[in-house]
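Before the break, one more example. Copy the sequence into your notebook; we will annotate it together after we see the structure.
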Amino acid sequence: MCKALFAILLPALALILTGCSGTPVKPPKNNDIDILADNALNIDTLPAKNIKVAADKSWQSSGILLDNGEHIKVKATGKWSPAPLIFKWSGGVGNSFFGAEVPYITGGALMAKLGHDGIPFEIGINKTFQANDYGMLYLAMNDPFEWQYDNEGALDVSIYTSNSKSSDTST
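Here is what the structure looks like once it is written out:
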């Protein structure tokens, strides 16, 4: 009985300690957005749309419909965890210890996509980018979506845009 239990627990413990990490995956070409310099959008005079992004939900609508050519800055604060039972918490930058829904984005990091079928990209705690298409901005924690039921925490996210449009649709 002890040997059988050990044979089950040892691989599980190894996965937990290594964070289910594997070989780094190269991100696909993302024509939906272009990453910009941090100072490309002066947010001093722009109003922020403030939302909470929950750790235990997959893609969450920001309520902001982006236009082609629009500049966006996303800033995040707070703590969340895909592994609260083992006391592993992070902010939007995530931690390579965590598993990932999107293999080329840091596990536990704040990620975004433009439109329902957009290509995900990493936000972390601060990212400025240009939208190269039209669509709703979606945000999520990068944790395997089938494992999100035990996640805890949320990030406070401020979104600044050069020409934002709010939408009442949120999913």
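Confidence is low (pLDDT under 50) at residues 13-18, 164-171. DSSP finds one helix and eleven strands in the chain. Try to locate both features in your own notes.
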